[in-house]
Amino acid sequence: MISSVSKGVIKAGLTEGSYYANKYIGAKRLDPNNLYGIESPLLKEAMKYIGVDYSSNGKTPEEGFNSARFVQYVFEQALHLKVPGNSSEQWSLGEDILKENLQPGDVLFFKNADTGNITTTAFYVGKGRMIYSSSTKGITIIEFKDSSYWNSRFYGAKRITEVRDIDREDPLISEALKYIGAPYLESGKTPSGFDCSGFTKYVYEKALGIYLPGAPEQQWKLGTPVKKEDIEVGDLVFFENTHRPGISHVGIYAGNNQMIHASRTGSAEVRINYLSYNFYTEKFAGIRRVKNLTIPKDIPVVKEAIDLLNVPYKSGGTSPEGFDTSGFVQYVYKQIGMDLPRYGKNMLQEGTEVKEEDLQPGDIVFFKSSSIIPAIYVGNGQIAVVSRTEGVRITNYKVSSYWNPIYYSARRLNVEG
């Protein structure tokens, strides 16, 4: 069968001496399931969905796909690789490929011409063509090589053969993963609901016994600044001007350009995101290493104080049933064989005065409000102190807007043992 210019579709013979026999060049047998002769398993899978509708949120052929979700779905079906469902996060994966070295199955990335953000991903089919989910046509194959529209937006290409996982063996990450899917809750500090800094605080305390303050801008002031190229698993990554000015979001670096964090956007839960996500690259503020902020429990006074964490506040309390501020300090020192006066103003007369810059774990620090409030210094700017609302707790007075301004004095006692 052939389409003739003059007669339309006709049946023509290839007998010797006929018009078409004299012009015959050769023949190809096409596989109806693989009309493009494609070898790439990714493309074989992608071709199955030509004509599937576009959807901004869909994740299956029945729901439809956007461009990134389409790429995600094909990788899962063809290679059992779990790639993220966002174009800018997908950019973190694989090997950079120059345009002239493209092979079928490579992933193409395109940007928004105004913002420069990655917005679209596609599979390279070969011969200048690509397959992607178009907002107007659904899954379709188009020419891009000679397209001024697509070339002006071309961001780069990747060859993705593996997806490297986060460091699940690290004790901090192992602890963080327990709470994947926990809901986001403003000011939340427990698995029933976390905000971003409540999550980092909770995980560090459970995994490493490190007590972080409760706000991202306070955590930002701790530890050691780290360059991007030196980032390690467990470092805190910070972002600014997200939902409010200044440092406003924090997560835990989990390895391979990914972080675990309590996100207030999207599904509003604890989840894993790539740092290449457009939003986080725009809002990135810096990195802090805080794993060294451990509490020296080998010091008897410090150990006794830590053992009493979460004992409730009680007015006039001097026992583990409940403490007031001075009752707590008096009790702790009593456990190591040292008697102190009942109230903070009298404790100020004990031992020798210590400059703030010379503080050591086990020293008594004093704060002046309507009365003299004693606390036990446990290192790295942290004190064990009694809060009316939380009982015995660890707080970093150096970064606290309440405690730092009312710092008053410190004393060192001659403690044996």
UniProtKB/TrEMBL annotation:
What's a Pfam family this protein contains? Answer: NLPC_P60
Gene Ontology molecular functions:
cysteine-type peptidase activity
- Sequence ranges assigned to domain NlpC/P60 in this UniProt record: 36-161, 166-291, 295-414
Question: Which SUPFAM superfamilies has this protein been placed in?
Answer: Cysteine proteinases
Q: Which UniProt keywords apply?
A: Hydrolase, Protease, Thiol protease
Which InterPro entries would you find in this protein's record?
NLP_P60_dom, Papain-like_cys_pep_sf, Peptidase_C40
Mind listing the GO biological process terms from this record? Answer: proteolysis
Q: Which PROSITE patterns match?
A: NLPC_P60
Top-level taxon: Bacteria
Where are the annotated coiled coils located? none
Tell me the protein family, please.
Belongs to the peptidase C40 family.
Record protein name field = NlpC/P60 domain-containing protein
Task: Please name the taxonomic classification of the source.
Answer: Bacteria, Bacillati, Bacillota, Bacilli, Bacillales
